[in-house]
Amino acid sequence: MPFLVVTIVAAIVDLVVLAVFHIARPEVDPLTRPTSEYALGAYGWAAAVATGIVGLGALALAWAVRTQTRPAAVVLAIFGAAKVAQAFFPIDPAGVVTTTGQVHNVLGNIAFFTLPLAAVLAVRALSPRWRWAPPAAAGLVVAVVAVLAADLHGAFGVAQRVYLVGCSLWMLAVAAVGIADLPDRTRDVS
């Protein structure tokens, strides 16, 4: 259960930090610019911390689901490790190319594709307890396609934000379902 609580806290922190950045950093256009740009400039440390926390939440979730769905747990662990590492490699400012920025991009691409894959791999294990598991996984896959399409039409930022919110909500829901399924030990008085 503690691992599921870590996941829930991580998802909530991610959602709150993303919302706050829309207010605190209005110069980062949410329609066209990636959320990674919040790590540049004022409050950049908060973006790095939130990214690391998301990674830790995913690692905790991977550990929590490892006995129910090993393939999904492995892919979740890859996602989590990529996000934790990404926290230490900020994106490059526009027009600049550095090794640090390139590492950020590679880790971001790994994370981008692995969480939806983990959701798809977890459907069978989650479906008996969470009837929304199949549509939630499908939604993340559609969000990936939407981000790729939006990038071609200048709306990458908004599509990425929808995708990231969906990822955090998926992790939050899976962890909440896991907690709800725990036996109530207070009833066992024998």
TrEMBL record:
Transmembrane segments: 42-65, 72-91, 103-123, 135-156, 162-182
InterPro entries in the cross-refs: DUF998
A Pfam family annotated for this UniProt entry: DUF998
Keywords: Membrane, Transmembrane, Transmembrane helix
Protein name, UniProt field: DUF998 domain-containing protein
